[in-house]
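Onboarding guide, step 5: your first structure request.
Type a short instruction followed by the sequence, for example:

Predict the 3D structure of this protein.
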Amino acid sequence: MKKIVLYGVVLLTSIWACTKVPISGRSQLLLVSDDEMNAMALTSYKQFLDTNKVVAANTQQAAMVKRVGDKIAKAAQSYFEQNNAPEYLKSYQWQTELVQSSQINAWCMPGGKMVVYTGILPITQNETGLAVVMGHEVSHAIAKHGSERMSQGMIAQGLLTAGQAGLGIAMQNKPSATQNLWNSVFSVAAPAGAQIGMLAFGRNQESEADHLGLIFMAMAGYNPEEAVAFWGRMAAQSGNGSKPPVFLSTHPSDQQRIADIKRLLPEATQYYNGTKGGVKRN
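The system replies with structure tokens like these:
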């Protein structure tokens, strides 16, 4: 009986909640609204900033992080405007903060709330390397990977009954289980200084974020070829015998990622050169 109910939920919800990820065109099931996800993300984001050391905005590193974040957000908006979908990002309220931490990590919550850890800056090395990271993380939010993971979890854990959808409904049905699911996807339940904010995405979603990220960074005026060099440095970091960086959790293998990025570079380069949208070069 439980399997029959589960199949019914999948069938009924997929009829109206199946959407396509921008650029990649992959179909995904979304059972939660942007408003619901963004509201919970904002609460988690504020809690994180309150319990971690935010680097002062007037420092050189923090200014660079904000500059890159602003440029990529504007590039993403430009992409959707050029593709006749100017309202796609209407609910996003972009914010980027640099946090003092030795972790090699960065993340972007639903709705555009982003954090970069100082620990990743020695590997990004420069502003373009940082754009690789931030383009990737922004793409997770734009592709609504968090909403997708929540939707999959709500179905798998029976938090919705047939014909139902919405984070609010799941909270009403099973508030504790729904909160636990949120914590598992976004790791917001970890104590201060731990891996708070590490979004738990699958490898397909990580590869998809690489693809979108290349295009957004290119449209922002950053050379996408730097992605190969950056991921080479990340591969060296993970292969030095120490524990792999948090940023590499559930990611594709280093070799596969770099091969995929090289395959995608011709498309991204068109955006960088201005022949397919983006910033026109002299």
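Each response can be followed by summary notes, for example: The beta strands are 18-20, 27-29, 95-99, 106-109, 113-117.
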